[in-house]
Amino acid sequence: MTPAIFSLSGLSLTDEERAFFRDANPAGYILFGRNVSNREQLRALTDSLRELHGRGDLLISIDQEGGRVSRMKPPEWAAYPAPGVFAQLYDLAPASAIQAARHNAQLLALDLGEVGITVDYLPLLDIPAPGAHDVIGDRALGADPMQVAALGRATLDGLSRGGVTGCIKHMPGHGRALVDSHKDLPVVDATASELETDIAPFAKLANAPVAMTAHIRYTAWDADHPATQSEFVISQIIRKRIGFSGLLLSDDIDMQALEGTIPERSERAIAAGCDLVLNCWGKMDDMAQTASALPTMSAETKSRLDRAMEGVGAVKDETPREELLAARDSLLSLMEARA
Length: 339
Description:
Structural class: alpha/beta
């Protein structure tokens, strides 16, 4: 199996993609707006991927956060609030915010499960610093590490109740970035002591099944390499200091924060200790060259992948969607009542 998550070019598999994916056998797939039209189409697409590999628990993922990061959009799907809304409610009523975040995530999971998606790249555990780039912005769950951990745990729980695996990101913390890592490499000069704040929510949720790295260079830990490609950051900070033992993905390997060709970036990420590389643009040449460049998935990564995908598709809480929606919206209405 290739230790990569690949992407698709359109609304259905092309013959070229079908042949390549069958041969490369990647760990899974990530979907974007270009792959999404309606429920029937999206379910047919995910079913075709499962049939291709014969794996009912195939990792099929998406960024469906709510707010500005939503690949499945109205009118076909409901609009969901940005994660920052739950941070606002937490300031008024912490227990209500936690419950609302859990209900919201369970609703998201029901939408995703209906169309065969098994992993949502949520929640963000990044702690935004004053003056940082707004690439995180209202995607954050707050500025207090314990609050972020509490809302993040509720989000993971809600997704799991709906049969979907969550992913904590962007480890070990994207909140201090002064530039958007999609476009440039952020360099964070905070001290190791200051960075304890950034890693605190990740340490609280270190038992999460999946995590995603940050394409950020932290000079206190490794002055030469971004976290995604830093053996020190992955082994000593993510695995040891934070204590994360689950499936570790790179952020999108195509982002301009990284240097070199896509296969070179991917090799460096795997060599540094990432379990899987995330390749998001669906470009056949890049995917083919990456599959050729990467080693076969290790037994340790395969074990982590299997653990992460245990129970996907099985709804653990049968509360009707209408009840979850009403309960969430009632809790969110507390902000209007207090305004």
